[in-house]
Amino acid sequence: MSTLSVVITGGTRGIGFGLAKRFLEKGCKVTICGTSTQSVRKAIHELAAFGESAAGTVADVGKRSDVESLLDVAVKKFGPVDIWVNNAGITHDTQKVWELEQETIEDVLRVNMLGVVNGTVVPFLEMQKQGRGKIFNMEGLGSDGFMMEGLSVYGTSKSALRYFTRAFANEAGSSPVQVGTLSPGMVVTDLLLETLRGDSPETRKKRKFYNIMADDADTVTAFLCEKMMLSTASSPRIEWLTKPKVIARMLLAPFRRRELFNGKSED
Questions:
Q1: Is the Cα torsion angle 151, 238, 35, 160 positive or negative in sign?
Q2: For the chain, what percent of residues have pLDDT higher than 70?
Q3: What is the pTM of this model?
């Protein structure tokens, strides 16, 4: 069993919450953050079986002072942080850029881009002092240049995240701190379900595609957690949905039926 200390931003739901559970199952100490007291309390309650090994606090990752406070909470509770996962992210309604409210655009870019900058710089400075540590930034749609109509701003933020992580790792040079990315592929979370509102032809088309390519959070988080703990590369990219997997799923799609959305609200 491990005694690693792990921090996960946006750890109150979705992939972040799934990762928290996986790390806790492996004996790690985990600190999560969310944007409201209610969401943090709910998540910690759901992790009650792990006792004092789970901690949570409210933080807006778009504010550097909040990220610094999150680090302080983790260090005071569990000691030096070994793994930091920048998972916090938000999306927007499926709309063309000019149809989005300016406030929505700014919120997505602030959380998904500035939040990652803050969430990389703050733990990196601390990990440099302690001489070890791993920082992982969560990729998403757009990281590889793939475009989906109506999600241009979200995709832009994830494309920027991938570039920033590579550039940061390059500048960090021979640092003992690993700085890399996680590529979870398509995961059935609230963020994904938000793109399936209504029952238009476009929505039905997306649902069919997701049923071929997407996976449940438990499957993906188990893989990511294991790989993060074992990672030794200076700038790792841990990828779940690899090109060979994509090709295999496309070839097998006519012969098997996957239904990932039973019991999940899509309206």
A1: negative
A2: 94
A3: 0.90
